[in-house]
C-alpha cells in the first residue's frame, strides 16, 4: 500500500518521494486537497499513511485533508509538513499525528512514518 | 440699554419679534453643511436645510408639512429611524452618532450618521426635534476596503513565509543529497556544516515568524528553542553534552534577535565541534543573554578543553563561522571577546558598556 503525499511544491514533492522511496515506501503524490480527498475516497484501501503540507493548491488545506482521511479511517497515520503553521497544530491537527517543521531532514520523515506505522499508536511529539 | 448677545436675555431682547427669531433659525438651518430636518412633535417637517433638498433630490414643496416617513413616497419609512425618533429620543432627549443604512431611490445605498435632539419651548409643552445627517457612506466603504487589504496582506505574508520554508527545505535537502554522493570526506564535512547552517537559519526564521516585523523577542525562550534545535541535530545519544540557556527577561528587536540568534548558533556549533573530545566526561555549554537598558551582552561558554591537541581553539580565530560572527557583531555595533584556557572557553559579544556578571559553564 502507498503513502499519500499532498504537497503543492514540485521540488519538495520530488524530495519527499525520494526520501520515502529510500525508506521502502511507495508513494502517490498530488498537490491539491480536493484531489487528495478524491483519492482517499476512491482508493482508500490502498493508502497506509497521509503526509500532507498545510498550504495546498485549491480551496482545502492540509488540516482539512487529514480530518477527512480520519473520517475514512480513524487509525490513518497522519504526518503534517509545514514551515509556517506549526503553532496551529495543537488546535487544528488530528489527534495522535506528527508535525514536521520545514526544513526537515529526509530521515526525519521516514522515521516519523515508520514510527506511526509500527507502533500503531502514533506519537504526539512534534518532530523537527 | 446695552445688549449682551451672549446671554439668553440678550438674545430675547434682540429677537423679541418672532419673525426675526424665525429668520435666524432658518438661516442657521440653511447654513449648516449637512442635511438637517426640523420636525414637530408629530414628526412632520417644519423646515429643512438646503443641503437636505440637494442631497436627497427633493423639493421644499414636497417636504415641508409632510410626515417624515411619508417623504419621497415612503423612502424615509426606515425601521431604525422609527426606533430613533419614537423610542430613543422621547426617552433620552438626545442621540448622537446613530447609524442608519438605507437604499434611497434617488441616490442609492447610503450609510447616514444621525444626530437628533429634542428642543422644548419655555412652557415645556411644545417640542421640536432637530435631526442632522452626515453621509458616511464613502468612509465606511474605505474602512471595508482597508480591512480587505489588511486581510490580503496577511494572506500574502503567510504565502511568502510558506515559500521561504519550502525554499529552505529544498536547499537543505539538496545539500544533504550532495553530501551523500561526494567522495571526499572533507567535502562531506563542509556540506554537513552548510546543512546545519541552513537548518539554523530556518529555525531562526520560524522563531521570529510568530513575532512579526518590528516586534520584540523574548530572548531566553528564543535562544532556548534555537539551542534545542542545534543540540538535537548535533549531539548524538553517546555524547554527554548539554546546552543550557541562562537569562532573565531581556528582549531584543526582531532584527537584533535574528543576528544574535545566528551568532549564538555559530558559537554553540563551534563548541560542539571543537571543545569536547571523544573522551569528555560531561560537557556543558551555557548561553547567556543579559540586558540593561540599551546595553546587552550575549555570551557562550563551555567547560571544554579550550584548545585541542592539534591546536584548534574551541572558538577558532579564523574561518567562515568566525567571519560570520565578526560581521554580525559589527552590524550590531558590538565587541567580541574570547577567553580560552584549559578549563574552557567563553565568548562574549557586548553592546556598549556592561558590568560583567559572568555565567561560566561548571
**What order do the strands of the largest sheet of chain A run in, or round the barrel if closed?**
2-1-3-4-5
The unreliable regions of chain A are: 121-128
The radius of gyration over CA of chain B amounts to 38 Å
Helix segment tally of chain B: 10
Beta percentage of chain B is 15-25%
**Derived structural class of chain B:** alpha+beta
Topology:
The complex is a heterodimer of chains A (128) and B (362).
Chain A: E1 2-6, H1 10-22, E2 26-30, H2 33-43, E3 47-53, H3 62-72, E4 78-82, H4 89-92, E5 98-101, H5 106-119
Helix pairs in contact in A: 1-5, 2-3
Chain B: H1 8-14, H2 18-31, E1 36-39, E2 45-48, H3 50-56, H4 71-74, H5 79-92, E3 94-104, E4 108-120, E5 127-135, H6 137-181, H7 185-209, E6 216-218, H8 219-234, E7 241-247, E8 251-253, H9 254-274, E9 283-292, E10 295-302, H10 320-331, E11 334-341, E12 344-351
Parallel strand pairs in B: 7-9
Antiparallel strand pairs in B: 1-2, 1-5, 3-4, 4-5, 6-8, 9-10, 10-12, 11-12
Structural summary, described in words:
The complex is a heterodimer of chains A (128) and B (362). With 128 residues, chain A is an alpha/beta fold. Helix content of chain A is 41%, strand content 20%. Chain A has helices at residues 10-22, 33-43, 62-72, 89-92, 106-119, and strands at residues 2-6, 26-30, 47-53, 78-82, 98-101. In chain A, helix 1 (10-22) crosses helix 5 (106-119). The longest helix of chain A has 14 residues, at 106-119. Chain A is globular, with a radius of gyration of 13 Å. In chain B, the strands form three sheets. A five-stranded antiparallel sheet of chain B has the order 2-1-5-4-3, with helices on both faces. The longest helix of chain B has 45 residues, at 137-181. In chain B, a hairpin with a 2-residue loop joins strand 9 (283-292) and strand 10. The interface between A and B is medium-sized, with 17 and 21 residues.
